[in-house]
Amino acid sequence: MSLRRPIAPWILVLLLDACVFDGSGFGDQDEAASASGMTTGTSEPTTSTPTTSDASTASTVGPTCGDGVVDSGEECDDGPGNADTAACTSRCTQASCGDGLIGPGEACDDGNALAGDGCSATCVSESCGDGVVQADAGEECDEGEGNGPGQACTGICKLNVCGDADLGPDEACDDGNRDAGDACTTECKEAVCGDGFVQVGVEACDDGNAVDGDACLSTCVAATCGDGVVQDGVEQCDDADGDNADECLDTCNAAKCGDGFVHAGQEECDDNNLNDGDGCSSSCARESRRVFVSSKEYKGDLDGIAGADALCQGLADSNDLGGTWKAWLTADAGADSSPSARFVHAAGPYLLLDQAQTKIADDWADLTDGTLDAPINVYENGQNAGGETLVWTDTLASGAGFVGIQDCVGWDSSSNLAQGIQGDRTRTDGGWSNTNTNDGCDKTKRIFCFEQ
């Protein structure tokens, strides 16, 4: 039997290197030798170094997001589970509020951690009532559960303002408008006089104060002459009585001489001018006094001195004489009631009512000196007196009262037992006032009437 010797390893290497596989077997020997670096026909083997690849051209696959492996720089990697809406995003980051991706549990995510822009800092959609003011959404306020009717912030996140028809915390009223002329003002206060707003149909004016003296009274009534309030710079006075005989005329001008109205207690006359010599002087003093004897006859019951004065005034008024008239009579009882005590002591003449205006005396002193310039024989109607000539007087020509009880019991009796001193209208001596005779009070006689 023949023994086979083992092939040395290095021979195997040479054989392998010399072989070229072309899919059908080994190539020719020369090509194999050339490829292996061996020289054909040389008995000594040539050693060759195996060929290796260049590291710069080697093909290597690096780590990527989505490969399921959390590589350096990645927070997570769920492979196919990565998504913008998943806990691990398509960027291999943990989903978080503010990353701009709507992750699990988020209703929104606008890429910031700011509130008031529709998406809160916790990625919850913002809406009216959540306590966050969304200015971009048109919210003016948001008190959360504090929103609502009657609150400072309404149920639609608008500030409660006057005129919105929602009665706010600081409003007394709110009628849904800003009309200043109704019962609720533009400041949502109940309309009252003095608030500066004219309430239509209720107030004539409203100047915002409660002061009288300007164009609008404190009652919100327009100031007018006769309202009793003096309007500064417009009226001189205002006594609200319309009486032109007092210190304030019905034109709200202060009474003065020459205004045509007799200022009682201050003026004797006022003929609407300041001329002298026309009966009323420039100081509104009568330049004359008128006198008449009554056309009527009376018994001694004259209802006292006051009643007799009223009879004279009535006769003068019935003939439109004007002025104030008193009877030339004295009553002995009580305080001095004589003409000297009751009458104006005129500085001007005393005249009759005839067309000639006959003068009977120059002044009071001349009237009471015991004689007259002419007898008092003209009636209140200007006609010459006739009939009974005697008059009731109980008065001396001096104007003083007669001493003794001769006054028909104070000119209050028509008894034939009572007596009354008489004068004579036809005389110009002292007998015109006192004839030193008397008569029963049941008799009828005339009376003298003097203008004051």
Structure overview:
- Residues 31-64 are annotated as: Disordered.
- By secondary structure, the chain is mostly loops.
- Among the domains are: 8-38, no CATH class; 81-126, no CATH class; 289-451, Mannose-Binding Protein A, subunit A (Mannose-Binding Protein A, Chain A, Roll), CATH 3.10.100.
- 10% of the residues lie in helices and 7% in strands.
- It has six helices and eight strands; from the N terminus they run ααβαβαββαβαβββ.
- Strand 3 and strand 4 (359-361) form a beta hairpin.
- The relative contact order is 0.06.
- Residues 1-60 have low confidence and may be disordered.
Biggest sheet details: 5 strands, mixed
The residue-averaged pLDDT reads: 85
CA-to-CA gap between the ends? 199 Å
CATH topology of the domain at 289-451: the name is: Mannose-Binding Protein A, Chain A
Helix content: under 10%
- Residue share in β-strands: 5-15%
* Secondary structure tally: strands: 8
Count of individual helical segments: 6
- Shape annotation: rod-shaped
| Unreliable parts | 1-60
Structural class: little secondary structure
What is the helix/strand order?
HHEHEHEEHEHEEE
Supply the CATH architecture of the domain at 289-451: Roll
Radius of gyration: 67 Å
- CATH homologous superfamily assignment of the domain at 289-451: Mannose-Binding Protein A, subunit A
Query: What spatial order of strands do you see in the largest sheet?
Result: 2-8-1-3-4
CATH class categorisation of the domain at 289-451: Alpha Beta
